[in-house]
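Milestone M4 deliverable, item 7.
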Amino acid sequence: MKNKIMIAFAAYNWAETHRMISIGEEFLNNGYEVYALGEGKYDFLLKNVDFHRVYVNEDKKWYTNERKEKLMKMDIYGNNYCTENELRKIINEEIKIINSIDPKVIITGYRTTLSVSAKITKTPLVWVLSAVVSKKFFEGGFASIPENRGGFFKKLKSNDSKKYSKLVLNNNSSSKIWNNILIENNLPIFKSDIDIFEGDINLLSDAPELFPFIVPSKKYQFTYPLINNNEIAMPKGIDNFLNKQRLSIFITLGSSGNKQLFLKILDCLKKIDASIIVAKTNILKDSDIQDYPKNYFFAESFPHIDIAKKTDLSIIHGGQGTIYSTLIAGKPFIGIPLFSEQQYNLEVISKMNSGICLLQKELNEENLISAINQIIKNKEINDNAKKLSKIIYKYYKDPDYSANKRAYNIIKNSIIDTK
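Output delivered:
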């Protein structure tokens, strides 16, 4: 009889879905039965994968546009983005599903409700997350003040980073309804709001070279970055479009970016003499882009690494996928984060002087063009981008540094083989 494992994802996010599928496939290739919990916009990525699909009826009510927006603004809402009744319904359904399957382990990247459901069913839970979301990051006092924040965090000054990290580690003000359910089941409560992201094992999907200040432990281990290897066709006509002796800029805000911010970036570049290549994904509609001049080239998606190599610099939002693809391409970037996770990702890399982090409040035509000119004229920034590429490239092509295999081995050795 095959061992069963469960992967669970928030399928409204492309990168999250891809990461869970990649790890699930590694288990599948090693003879496990893999159950995939959840569905959403990026369900098509599972089309040719031999997983058992498991659907949660409450997902249709849970993943509304309003809720997804709140989930993307956790600096403001924390864990306070649902009612207690809504939370109980989805957790109760998850519990029934988990008990019916009885997996050896559940692996997730952003399905927060499992931090309660897994505890109640006594199922080991593995979180796959960015190093900057881990408690290790905050325990070291490395988190800066988020640009957009709610509650009493609003009162903190921009230089209160150490104080902010301590408050985060000792504040559970937005976890009340979650803790009510844990108490009822005689389980330890979330002592901080980020406890919701803590599993029995926490896999940091980053390159350890970028985070030398985080010391791995049995509970926190680097898996290496999970880089997208799916083939995306290069849009037709792009080479002719780029065949001009002028600056070229690639813009991508991932799959769950903010439309208003996206359009503001595009508008800030209207006066610059450059070829502007834009991956509009599902954020921009045709009606949003019809009035832009001919030096703008729009497509649904691009092979990120290939197009970044062809252009002079990228403007990105700071998600892990875009960060690592840009680094592999060996080109500098301007990062404009939507929330703290992206802000911290960008700040870590910016300190290595291979790009510039520009906060939303700083975004205007003058500042954006100034940042572009700074990158063009600064040889050191461009050289550092190339140096980082050499460090990161092994995670992209060398099978000895496969994040999927490393995740599989850690989970198997630390959880499955010990049960």
